[in-house]
Design brief:
With 360 residues, this protein is of the alpha/beta class. It has helices at 5-12, 57-70, 95-106, 125-138, 162-179, 201-205, 264-275, 278-294, 313-322, 333-346, and strands at 35-37, 41-42, 45-51, 84-88, 116-119, 145-149, 182-188, 208-214, 220-227, 235-247, 253-261, 311-312, 350-353, 356-359. The strands form three sheets. Strands 5-4-6-7-3-8-9-10-11 form a nine-stranded mixed β-sheet, with helices on both faces. Helix 8 packs across helix 9 (313-322) and helix 8 (278-294) crosses helix 10.
């Protein structure tokens, strides 16, 4: 049969459309909550939390999602309560001790039961993903969050192989789709320590990425590196505090650790005093002054902490030139400004998005 334009048009009119188009006037901003932990974890999607070994990323993640299960505000951030399934593929035996330490420090002697489930097993996520979904459904958990800790211990393949990583991402995404939840993947960094280890497809598939590190004072520093529908650059400072939780059969102490907050403002002050050059300190002061004098509040949908005032990047650069922090007669003043900006960003003292910048 020869398909003339008239025949194609007639046949199209008989097909039930699978998709619906929306006009521009129908595109409205929704008011529903899109976060699990505001400014840190979206309600659905894939989130990567990465860092070097022994940096505290598992302790911090464990503490974070316990707040979700309890429905408790996290570091002055709103939380949407929901069941949590924590898959401990690495050193799972220690999580009972971590749970007891959290219980002793954060829960009253008598507390209401809450939905936090631990899966302690060695698995191949690609092969075992249907069994994980079945195990969760058997508990009627309907999780708001599933944690995979760590990627390396649940991948039967190579982190650097594009096919292996594509299969792993599809398996993690299948869990997300099964429960309409967020899946958090805890992962290690590469040898250079500048990004998550292995194939870049993992970062490309994520809806948010948080980097964890230790500073010179052994604080656990978590930075929001990027978020698909939120602000970047936010920093959470914590420390690991030892807790003696009991004694073993020999009468020796059993201990674990809990995550406790660190005063971020005091931490930033110490960083400034120790590591900033005179020019960097002057540049940061100029940004703070500009934000106070002519700053504006960020859009609500950026979900930044309250009180932030931001200015346009060009306004800050002009202020640095006007104050003489950057020499306008230099060979390349833009390059000088770029170096100052990168130095302050590396120390997590400024945040930026689009064409705006603000002091953290």
């Amino acid at each position: 049969m020869i398909r003339t334009p008239e025949l194609v048009e007639a046949l199209a009119g008989q097909i039930e459309p699978r998709f619906k188009l929306r006009r521009f006037d129908q595109l409205k901003v929704g008011t529903e909550r899109t976060y699990l932990v505001k400014g840190l974890i979206p309600r659905t999607g894939l989130v990567i939390i990465w860092g070097p070994p022994k940096c505290g990323k598992s302790f911090w993640t464990f503490d974070l999602v316990l707040h979700v299960a309890l429905g408790r505000e996290y570091r002055r951030r709103r939380v949407q309560q929901g069941p949590v399934v924590y898959c401990a593929f690495e050193g799972g035996g220690g999580y009972s001790a971590r749970a007891e330490a959290f219980r002793q420090r954060n829960l009253p002697d008598e507390h209401e039961p809450f939905d936090f489930f631990l899966l302690d097993a060695q698995i191949d996520l690609v092969k075992d993903q249907p069994n994980i979904v079945a195990a969760i459904r058997a508990e009627n958990a309907a999780p708001a969050c599933v944690v995979l800790d760590t990627l390396n211990r649940s991948l039967n393949g190579s982190e650097s192989n594009d096919k292996d990583m594509a299969q792993y991402i599809r398996a993690a995404d299948a869990i997300r789709q099964a429960f309409d939840c967020v899946v958090i993947i805890v992962h290690h960094c590469g040898v250079e320590g500048t990004r998550p280890r292995g194939h870049t497809s993992l970062t490309g598939a994520g809806d948010a990425q948080l980097a964890v590190s230790r500073d010179a004072d052994e604080n656990v520093i978590v930075k929001v590196e990027w978020m698909k529908d939120g602000a970047e650059g936010d920093v959470i400072a914590s420390r690991l505090e030892p807790v003696e939780i009991g004694t073993d059969a020999d009468g020796d102490a059993i201990s674990s650790c809990v995550i406790v907050p660190v005063d971020s403002a005091a931490l930033a002050t110490r960083i400034v005093s120790r590591r900033l050059s005179d020019r960097q300190r002057l540049a940061l002061d100029a940004l703070s002054e500009a934000a106070l004098a002519s700053g504006q509040s960020p859009p609500i949908e950026w979900q930044l902490p309250a009180g932030i005032q931001m200015v346009r990047v060009n306004h800050w650069r002009d202020e640095l030139i006007r104050k003489g922090v950057i020499d306008r007669t230099a060979a390349n003043p833009r390059a000088e400004f770029k170096r100052l900006r990168q130095a302050l960003a590396a120390r997590r003292l400024i945040g930026d998005r689009d064409d705006f910048i603000w002091p953290v």
